[in-house]
Amino acid sequence: xxxxxxxxxxxxxxxxxxxxxxxxxxxxxxxxxxxxxxxxxxxxxxxxxxxxxxxxxxxxxxxxxxxxxxxxxxxxxxxxxxxxxxxxxxxxxxxxxxxxxxxxxxxxxxxxxxxxxxxxxxxxxxxxxxxxxxxxxxxxxxxxxxxxxxxxxxxxxxxxxxxxxxxxxxxxxxxxxxxxxxxxxxxxxxxxxxxxxxxxxxxxxxxxxxxxxxxxxxxxxxxxxxxxxxxxxxxxxxxxxxxxxxxxxxxxxxxxxxxxxxxxxxxxxxxxxxxxxxxxxxxxxxxxxxxxxxxxxxxxxxxxxxxxxxxxxxxxxxxxxxxxxxxxxxxxxxxxxxxxxxxxxxxxxxxxxxxxxxxxxxxxxxxxxxxxxxxxxxxxxxxxxxxxxxxxxxxxxxxxxxxxxxxxxxxxxxxxxxxxxxxxxxxxxxxxxxxxxxxxxxxxxxxxxxxxxxxxxxxxxxxxxxxxxxxxxxxxxxxxxxxxxxxxxxxxxxxxxxxxxxxxxxxxxxxxxxxxxxxxxxxxxxxxxxxxxxxxxxxxxxxxxxxxxxxxxxxxxxxxxxxxxxxxxxxxx
Length: 573
Known about the structure:
A hairpin with a 6-residue loop joins strand 15 (494-498) and strand 16. This protein has 573 residues and is α/β, with parallel strands linked by helices. The strands form five sheets. Strands 12, 15, 16, 17, 18 and 19 form a six-stranded mixed β-sheet that branches. Helix 5 (113-130) crosses helix 6 (141-151), helix 9 runs antiparallel to helix 10 and helix 14 packs across helix 17. Helices cover 42% and strands 16% of the residues. It is built from 22 helices and 19 strands. The chain folds into four domains: 40-62 and 100-248, Rossmann fold, CATH 3.40.50; 259-292 and 302-316, no CATH class; 325-412, no CATH class; 426-570, tt1808, chain A, CATH 3.90.1570.
């Protein structure tokens, strides 16, 4: 059977439709926008949830498109068979009726302000070029010269501050209609500027651009803006009483960003894989936008594309490298004991409660842990499962949990890995020395101290502690750490082998206790297993004259370390 190609990375509506890609119909977003009649609408959603594609769809629906000569182009065919075409003349009368300015600010993600400004200026100039046919119309000579200088990127910096207002005024004069302004990913240059150290310059430019085009613009019909985070009005949307913010907490527009359950079921059926529906649900479902439960569309499409090639394909965390990991990593760097405990609880499937602050700025994110939690919530790392209002302060508190296996995987790997890097960056020489000197008490103390700096979880298995200890023992000068090598009749956890065979080698076996009082018993069990299965024999056979054996038992963030009290295994034994 011939299936439609899946739109991997396709965010242009016209390309998606004309080239026959699979499309999940979100055109009723248009109807709701027209019904609500918002003047300036800001949609905040996580990365890769379909914002750019929806903005492209809005452009092709509303725009009175013209070619280079000013001849009208009809985009009606792009919407044939889609839901918006069944809504009636009240809504269809708006199709192809407005000049549209569609500006993306993604290009502002650059290493310094000057380059970021040049790229943003270039995006504005592109919109001027796209509409340059209006220069053939009735336009004042002074406006023509100003238009041309902006289009060719020869205007001074001040000219670009109100360039969108000027362009919409020129378009209104040509069309006789006010302009629709679409601004995609408005906060990308702001986040990048904060991380790169030129936030004040960038926020000044964006604030001025928005104030002129969205607040004091008599040639504006309406505007739609998208981003990940709601930046406070005081920092960028100063005095904009016409701003309607639709965040993930809003009850409106919930189903238009991301895939609904019914849409994912239909996708599975359309590609002949209804049996895979539960996998999609387990891995990518669980986001709550208003009252709408949605799936991560980026990951759903990616997995279906892989399943078409290999029906046994194992799900991946496709979203892991597309989100704002830099700021999430900062959470790890600043984490105190309470924060680490909360992360552990989240990984276990429990919930945490946090105050919700929708109005924050990027330069405030690191000021408090609550701001960081809020950033993670609004950028897709958590699902709200409940809320309450403090009667005294009127502060809203949200009960948060990890939404699905994809995000849980990110926590178990990336977040856990970042904690491990933090531990490995500390001085571990005391542990290395104690291990070689058979100083069991110090080995135990050092391991517990490092466990307190990382995160674990109640369902942690031997493999977790195995990976943890292998990591902190790596880097011992003059020693090689080997994991899970065959030895005797089983598999030992770690060998610590000196480069020279004149020095002793070490076998470490791990056990996990369910209760604290079982630690001694489990450590003895680990030592018995080393002896019973002959784990040390491989090292003796490899030429090491002496082999010491450690049994280590873990319970949560405690451990007991024991050394075999019998003679070390030697070539003479």
